[in-house]
Amino acid sequence: MNITAGKLMAGGLVLCGVAAGIGVWYTQNYAYYDELDPAEVELTAVVDGAPVPLAAQDIRAIDGSSAPHRWRACARLTAPLPANATPFPDATPTYGPGWFDCFDAEQIGHDLETGAAGAWLARSEIAPDVDRILAVYPDGRVFGWHQINDKTPERGVME
Length: 159
Hints:
This protein has 2 helices and 8 strands, in the order αβββββαβββ. The chain folds into 2 domains: 1-31; 36-153, no CATH class. The longest helix has 29 residues, at 3-31. A hairpin with a 4-residue loop joins β7 and β8 (141-148). The chain is α+β, with helices and mostly antiparallel strands.
């Protein structure tokens, strides 16, 4: 084997690594997400144990079939949140893909901590051990995500 063959092999390995990295990045940011038709997105709030539909406009939402926690939504409520909606005290917005630019998990989390927005249960157990949460602002902006819950710790946690 001469130096040229070694350089070709090393270059090939580098190219394979770059291609694999691009593939992983693409699948995490694009391949498993679909934008949802706004007419099919139902925003709800849990009131007295049952989900109640909320009137909203300017709905933008995404979901992914690969995991139940990939759902995100941005909208504006056209009517106030029901007075007896169920608060969600431990809301932690989860990051979505960068191209879904209406949803800023860091800003929403900060606003929940400071009280600029309130967190509400939208639907309990939307999937096993996953709740749908809404962050609602006084001006009617609403942001939703799915959050893993710990309502059934006796089942154990995989570590």
